From TrEMBL:
Protein name as it appears in the record: Putative HAT dimerization domain, ribonuclease H-like domain-containing protein
Gene Ontology molecular function, alphabetical: protein dimerization activity
Source species: Rosa chinensis
Residue ranges of every copy of the HAT C-terminal dimerisation domain listed in the record: 174-252
InterPro entries xrefs: HATC_C_dom (IPR008906), IFN-induced_PKR_regulator (IPR052958), RNaseH-like_sf (IPR012337)
Amino acid sequence: MIIWYELLHAINNVSKVLQTEDMHVDTAIKELERLLSFLQKFRETGFEESLIEAKEIASEMGIEPVFMEKWTIHKKRQFSESSSEAVTQSAAESFKVNYFLYIVDQAISSFKTRFEQFKTFEENFGLLFDLDKLRSADRDSLKSFCANLTNLLKHGEISDLNEDDLYHDLRMLSEDLPNETKRAIDVLNYIKEVDGCYPNAWIAYRILLTIPVTVASAERSFSKLKLIKSYLRSTMSQERLSGLAMISIEKDIVGKLDYVNLISTFASKNARRVIFQ
């Protein structure tokens, strides 16, 4: 429980920060990097620290702080098999390898995989949303950044950005920005105030702030599907099942629909409709 508490407490703190309305990608990346650093450090020292704390709690509760030993099952060796003995582990070592390290490694692997899009976004637009990097960038690194960004946003031979003009815009912008400007949205607002002075930077920052970046996976919400119970459910197609789920989720909007008009429209387009005379 102590191990889970440490992991979930750290993840929960970052999760709350990421869900704030004014969250920006640069801040999100820094928070995720801190969390990943914590997990890597926790992997090295977390087991021993958790073990000490667990022993203290067990002693206070009058419980003997020892690991339960498991019976070792010896497999009967066949004549053709090697006689080498398997390496035995203590109960504490087994718990660390099979439980602690497994959980922490899964968490680290999951974070690295799910947030690759954030890292790619940082590599392509890093200087735009990290103003400290923009202000301290030398001539060569800024030119290289502008060339890569222009090439990235090019469609065939058409591009909304000019490499040289973007370089000059960002170079002048980094010197003209007020000291209190800290975020990419503040830079865009400043460029808007000085309308026409930095046309290529204006385009670049608008693209930067409208790119959707998400780490959400496509998962069906079975909490809603459980509410849709029918004997026909086993024979429903994927399209109909998704439609019923959407109706259940958006029940407020569905309640405002004109069913008479919808039924009439459906009936008029139904090929099986027969007019009796």
